Amino acid sequence: MNSPLLHAIQSVFFPHICAACGTNQLPENAGICSSCLFELPVTGFTQLPANEVEKIFYGRLSLEHAAATTYFTHKSIVQEILHQLKYAYRKELGLQLGAWMGFHLQSADWFSKIDCLLPMPLHPKRKATRGYNQAELLAIGIQQQTGLPLYSDCLERITPTRSQTTQHRSERWQNMREVFRVSKPTAIEQKHVLLIDDVITTGATLEAMGEKILQVPGTRLSLLCFAYTLPH
């Protein structure tokens, strides 16, 4: 039942507010208000060859293109909305940010070359705990904006991994070895795959998954993340 009383009770215990500034002046299906969305620190990397994200993978992974749409810094609007997305069950935020990423992707010269979207997978236990995969939500938003096919069940994380936030690149790479598997390789054979994730720091996780994707015959690989962590 969708009564005014029920709506009032829900608004008290589950307030629908902007994930960044806390205002309640936003559409029902949005997670961030238009003012905060406008303030996101856009990188412009989707239009910039040899950008900082692409350089991370030089000599490590054969990529067609790589980009992130925003800069991540500590105590920033991007950090706050990513925290809300991952830990506060803000599914509508993931869909909205994904559509916003899709808008930036559509203006990229290489957009027309992409065949399909693949979100970075979570381990089933982590997904069950969180209730969703934030990278998949971003990918769904991109699909809704662009119409690109989305294959959410082609990739698997077969081994849970501990947090990597305090690890160096070599430690992260060791942590990610043999964590992923392409469970449905025929779905992506001969396709240009766009791998989607929320944030990139050292690129170790994306590198490990990318290597598995490129083992499938005829695949080409590009990457798109919501945020790029600036070096300290």
TrEMBL record:
<dbReference type="InterPro" id="IPR000836">
    <property type="entry name" value="PRTase_dom"/>
</dbReference>
<dbReference type="InterPro" id="IPR051910">
    <property type="entry name" value="ComF/GntX_DNA_util-trans"/>
</dbReference>
<comment type="similarity">
    <text>Belongs to the ComF/GntX family.</text>
</comment>
<dbReference type="InterPro" id="IPR029057">
    <property type="entry name" value="PRTase-like"/>
</dbReference>
<protein>
    <submittedName>
        <fullName>ComF family protein</fullName>
    </submittedName>
</protein>
